[in-house]
Every structure is written in structure tokens, then in C-alpha cells.
Amino acid sequence: MPITISNRAKLVDRRPMSFLERIYLPAIFKGLRITLGHMFVKKPTINYPEVERPFSATFRGLHILNRDEEGRERCTACGLCALSCPAEAISMEAAERKPEETHLYREEKYAANYEINMLRCIFCGLCEEACPKDAIYLSQTFAPADYQRKGFIYKKDDLLIPETDSMRSTKNSKTTA
Amino acid sequence: MVLLAITLSLILEKVILIAIILGASLGIAMYSTWAERKVAAIMQDRRGPNRAGPFGLFQPLADGLKLFMKEEIIPTVSSKFLFVLGPSLAMLTACMTSAVIPWGPDIVKADGSVFSLQVADINIGILFVFGVVSLGVYGIMIGAWASNNKFSLLSGLRAASQAISYELAMSISLIALVMMTGSLSLREIVDQQHGFWKDGWFTWNFFKQPLAFLIFIVCSFAELNRAPFDLAECESELIGGYHTEYSSMKLGFYLFAEYINMFITSVILSSLFFGGYNYPGMDWVAAHASPLIVSLAGVGALLGKAIFFILFFMFIRWTLPRFRYDQLMNLGWKSMIPLALVNMLITGAVILYFFNH
User: In angstroms, what separates the C-alpha of A10 from chain B's closest C-alpha?
Assistant: First the structure.
């Protein structure tokens, strides 16, 4: 035996082939049995557009910008998410809330522009952890394909979750009261 | 004495038969491409084509359309006439062999006349088949040489020498069979294998000449240029070989001719060794059913066996790796030919000593 570190080396068998090996047939039938066996193996393929693979509960997909229970944007454009982002995918512009905009934004400062470049993003979830206002979350969906790069730069409108009916009803009850 | 009475109805019958046979072999060749991909997928735990239509059944149509629509490229350095002749010859020889195959038992019509399910019952049927099959390699050789490409030329050389080597063993193995049956007519060979069991032994030639069958099937792999003997078109060394320079429908003709050849070879294999249109219990069917149904059952039996062999060819292709060229030649000249000769000698001796009456 040759000396090896892994101790798994095998000597190549260079003996001349025996008669059974030379007529190939036993080896051929052995091979046919293997391929025949594969007819009954369960296929690992998932028929993608019809069937989707289930994600884990902690899957980190596309970002969403959250609203509070009255449908107001939670983001205050503090910039902690952009600061925490290792890929520098997030950028934003802050603006001051006007008195007539109190039903739109939760606090005095809000994000006028908010962009995430999904081509840069590595979906690490650090923005979600950094956010002090629970404004940004990673959802269960992933970025769809696009023909152009600019399609991957998600604006605030793409990220904000839509207002739900319950948000609207709480808002209305607050204003009437 | 009238040797050959040609009437309008005879011509009409034959034309219809030829149209049906050509259409059927083209259709089967088309779906062989689909089946090949499905078989490959199943062997490799994949799903195979399943997007075009149910189970991907429209895939061959889409492939054909694609080949028709593609740009037709004829290399400027090629010799143009031969370049076009190559695939045409391959296709022509592939379609010609089906003429002498007996596709089913004769249909006896109500007025007593016979409608034969064979285009031409010539008494040297096997010889005709081999003649045409050996012409088939010219399609590859001419196309390969006319491409003016070094890989194509190499592939043409390989195809030619491979065909010559294996045709020898194939023919010698068949001589043993012919000595036993005493006829070169395919119709007669098939009729001799009537039923399944007679006089204490199977009637099918496979059970009388198993060694001849083994040699024949190995050689037909080589003749078809199919894996494990697909040295003429090995993608890894010769980049497709003789069809490297071909595009569009000319490439389609080459690929199609290969599949038609596979179908015809399967039919010939089942006619020579597995009883053709005969099946166990056919006498009972003949006594109990109308003549048309009896004939169609025969055709069904033949097609069933042929499809089995087509699937077997695919099964082998996706199981075995390609032979090296010296291994191929060793197998052909040092094993197959001596084996076929020994088989022929033994058959001759047995016929001489035991059946000489």
C-alpha cells in the first residue's frame, strides 16, 4: 500500500481483464440494472411555476415598508438601516411633516424618497434588526426577474405595504372621535 | 404466363400502402425523439420535456418547426452539390428499407383477392435490406467529406470503417439464420416463425439462434451509429462529427434519418428473430375474428415489438459510455467476426447431421 495522509488511496487494478470482464455482458447488465432502478426513483425536480418550494419561516425575501395600525408610515428616515447595510443598497431622503399630513406620517420626520437596490442587496436582514421604528421588514417573496437594471431599484411606492381596511377603519374612528 | 400483372388497382393499393408506411415511420421517428428525451430524463431522475402540450407531446412539432425556421448555412469552402446530397442520401436510404418488410398477414378481401401488407415481396428481401443499409453510410461519408472540416472528415472515416467492420459480422451472423430458414425472403422467414410453440420448441428464431441475435443486435448498434458505438458523432471529441457544419433542415434530415433507421432496424430485428407479426395464440384469434382484425392484430404485434426494441436502444444509450476507437475495432474484428463464424459453423454442422432429410 502506498503511504498517504488520508489513508483512502486505492491502488489501480492493472491486471488483465478476465474472460467475463472481456465479454462485457455482465458489466452491461449491471449497468442496465442501475439505470432501470432509476426509473422508480422519486424525482427531486419541482414543477416550478405550478408548484413552489415552501420557504422556511425565517426566509428573508423582498423588503416591505410597514405602516402603523392607522395606516401611517412608520419610517422616520433616521438612516440606521442605510448605515447598517453592509452592501450599501439603501438610500433615502428625509422631509419634515406638514401639519396637514399627520394622517400620513407617524412622526414629524418622514422619508420623502426611499430606494433599495435589489441588485446590491444581499438579503442579510440587518436593516430589519437596525430599525428602531419597526418600519422595515423582509417578506417571504423574492425579487422577480427583469430585463433592465433599473427594474431592480425599488422605490418607496414599490416597498410600502398597501393600506388595509382595518387600518382605514381605525383611522376613521380616531378622526371622528 | 404472366409474371407480373400490373393493374390500376394494384398500383393504387401499393401507393396507399407506401403512403401509410412512410407516414407511420416518419411519425414514429418524430415521437422517438420525444421518447429519447423522456427516457434520458427518467434514467437521470429528471422530468424531461413537459411544457409543450400534455406530457410535452407537442415537443417534436416545436422542434421540427424550429429546424425549418432556422437559417440555412452552406459553408463557402464546402462542395455544394455533395453537401446537399449527403443528408438527402441519408434520408432516402432510411426510407427505402421499409419496402420489403412484411408489416402484417395478408388481408383476404370478401371477393377472395388478397391485399398484401408488404410493398414488395422480393425473394432476396434480406439482401435488399443489407444493400440499402450499407448505402446509408454514404450519406454520412459524403456529407462529412463535403463539409471540408477536419472533424467532419475524421467522423466520416470513422463511420465508414465502423460500418465495414460491423457489417461483416452482421451478415455472417445472418448467414446462420438463413441456412436454418432456407430462404432470403423476409415474408417466408416470418411465416416460418408462425405462432409461438411448435414441435416441442419455440418457433421464434431468437430461441434457435440466440448467439446470432446477440451479434446482430450489437452490430446494429454500430450500424446505427448509436451509443455505445456513436464514434462518428461523439460530441466531446468531434463536435458532432459529420453534422458539425450542417444547420436547419439538413441537420434535421440527418437526425431524422437516424431515428427512422432505428425504427426500421427494430422492425427487422423483430421480424428476423422475434416472429415479426406472429404472436402466441394467433391461431385462436384467426379462427374467432374477422380477417381485418386478424391482420391489424398482427401489425400491432410487430409494432409492439419494434417499440420495445426502440426503447431498448434508448435504454442502452443512456446506460453505457462510448467505446474507444481501438476497443470498437477490437470488438468488431477479434470478437464479433470469429464468434459469428463459429456460430455459422456450428449451425451448418447441426443442420447437416440432424436435419438433413
Answer: 23
Q: Residues B288-339: pLDDT tens digits? A: 777 778 888 888 888 899 999 999 998 888 888 888 888 888 888 888 899 8
Phi-psi region of B29 (alpha: psi -120 to 50; beta: other; left: phi over 0): alpha
Which three-class secondary structure state does DSSP give residue B132?
Answer: helix
The secondary element (H helix, E strand) that includes residue B197 is strand B197-198
- DSSP result, B162-186: HHHHHHHHHHHHHHHHHHHH----H
Q: What is the pLDDT of residues B251-270, one digit of tens each?
A: 888 888 889 989 988 998 88
Question: Do the Cβ atoms of B315 and A35 come within 8 Å?
Answer: yes
Comparing alpha-carbon positions, the chain B residue that sits nearest to A34 is B319
pLDDT single digits (tens) A6-56: 878 788 888 888 888 777 888 888 988 988 888 888 888 888 878 888 888
pLDDT reading at A139 higher than 60 = yes
Q: How far is the C-alpha of B292 from the C-alpha of B109, rounded, in Å?
A: 9
Longest CA–CA span in chain B (Å) reads 66
Amino acid at residue number A76: T
- Give A33→chain B minimum CA distance, Å: 9
DSSP symbols for B21-62? HHHHHHHHHHHHHHHHHHHHHHHTT---S-SSSGGGTTHHHH
State how far Cα B181 lies from the chain centre. 21
Confidence of residue B96 (pLDDT cuts 50, 70, 90): confident
Residues B159-186, mean pLDDT to the nearest whole number: 87
Quick one: pLDDT at residue A127? 92
Exposed/middle/buried for residue B177 (C-beta within 10 Å: 0-12, 13-18, 19+): buried
> Strand B114-115 vs strand A136-138: parallel, antiparallel, or unpaired?
unpaired
Q: Tell me, what's the pLDDT at B210?
A: 86
Q: What is the DSSP letter of A107?
A: S
- Domain A63-161+170-176 sits in CATH at 3.30.70.3270
Nearest CA of chain A to the CA of B221: how many Å? 14
3-state helix, strand, coil in chain A (%, to 5): 30, 15, 55
pLDDT in tens, B138-155: 888 888 888 888 888 888
Conformational region of residue A59, where left means phi above 0, alpha means psi within -120 to 50, and beta covers everything else: beta
Q: Cβ of A39 under 8 Å from any chain B Cβ? A: yes
Domain boundaries, chain A: 63-161+170-176
Per CB-CB distance under 8 Å, the chain A contacts of B46 are 43, 45
> What residue segments make up the domains of chain B, in order of their start?
69-354
How many helical (H) and strand (E) elements, i.e. helices and strands, does chain A have? 6, 5
10 Å CB burial of residue A58 (0-12, 13-18, 19+) is: exposed
B22 pLDDT more than 70: yes
B54 touches chain A (CB under 8 A): no
Q: How large is the ipTM? A: 0.71
